[in-house]
Design goal:
The protein is α/β, with parallel strands linked by helices. 45% of the residues lie in helices and 14% in strands. Strands 3-6-9-12-14-15 form a six-stranded mixed beta sheet. It is globular, with a radius of gyration of 21 Å.
Length: 286
């Protein structure tokens, strides 16, 4: 037995638990919350144990959970779980993305009080994590399987993200229903968007044809952003807006078609999630 293992055996269980919590605080907190949920809701206890408490790592729990949701007669849950496990093993950074996304929801969504709530029940989170595996498959050249995943994600979670799109970490897609993300779209880190957002093209043109959403942007519900245009860092797009031209950094745009109506109102719009927009009386223009 190596010295480190011998030392571990001498440690008390609370000390070991504390060490693991320090290494992976999100997973540690999520497990503790799952224990409390199972005790408080006996009808959910089996589900909580099967989905979270029976697994040693967050990645394994997520693989099981998503496979159960996305498996069907065409490709079963066990086969899908193998694909998820392969992705996490081949690209460990995917696990970092999961934790960053889960933390983003915990910090930004006023309806969330625990990590376990979005992990188990929020389809915006589920769809985003499943997309991450479709993107891994796409980069590996496994395009038919990536497209199968895309189709199932759309059917089950009502979110349609092309596997070739590029999405950063620390992203919150609230609710997720009706979100469409095109093939050449880019979403950088720390972006927040609500339901019904479309990042689309403008017609049948080929090549790079979808929006580039830069870091820290907040996009309101049912906003539509079309074409190969840039939404500048730390800007806001008002709910229901139709954006057809580039958005400057740290500005707020709203309307149909959208126009600049003021500054972003804060340093980090995607964190503040302030969707109340007052029209600016100055001469800002896109």
């Amino acid at each position: 037995m190596c010295a480190s293992m011998a030392l571990m055996e001498k440690r008390s269980m609370p000390v070991i638990a504390e060490m693991f919590a320090t290494c992976d605080p999100v997973w540690s907190d999520l497990r503790e919350e799952a224990v409390r949920m199972a005790a408080a809701e006996p009808a959910l206890a089996s589900f909580v144990h099967a989905t979270i408490l029976n697994h040693e790592r967050l990645e394994a729990a997520l693989s099981y959970h998503l496979a159960q949701k996305l498996g069907n007669d065409d490709v079963g849950a066990m086969q899908l779980r193998q694909v998820f496990d392969q992705a996490f093993a081949d690209a460990p950074s995917l696990g970092d993305d999961v934790r960053a996304d889960l933390s983003a929801i915990f910090e930004r969504d006023p309806a969330v009080n625990t990590y376990v709530e979005p992990f188990l029940f929020f389809k915006g989170f589920h769809a985003l994590q499943a997309y991450r595996v479709t993107h891994w498959l796409w980069l590996k050249g496994r395009k038919p399987m990536a497209l199968h995943f895309q189709s199932r994600i759309s059917e089950v979670f009502s979110l349609d993200a092309h596997p070739a799109a590029r999405i950063g970490r620390g992203v919150m897609i609230d609710h997720g229903t009706g979100v469409v993300i095109g093939e050449t779209a880019v979403i950088e880190d720390d972006v927040s968007m609500l339901h019904g957002v479309t990042l689309g093209g403008t017609g049948k043109e080929q090549g790079d044809r979808h929006p580039k959403v830069r870091r820290g942007v907040m996009i309101g519900a049912n906003a539509t952003i079309l074409g190969n245009i840039e939404v500048g860092a730390y800007s806001r797009v008002g709910a229901g807006s139709v954006v057809l031209t580039a958005v400057p950094e740290r500005c707020t745009v709203a309307g149909v078609p959208a126009k600049v109506i003021g500054c972003a109102g804060c340093d980090q719009p995607s964190h503040e999630m302030n969707q109340l927009i007052e029209e600016y009386s100055g001469d800002y223009q896109i």
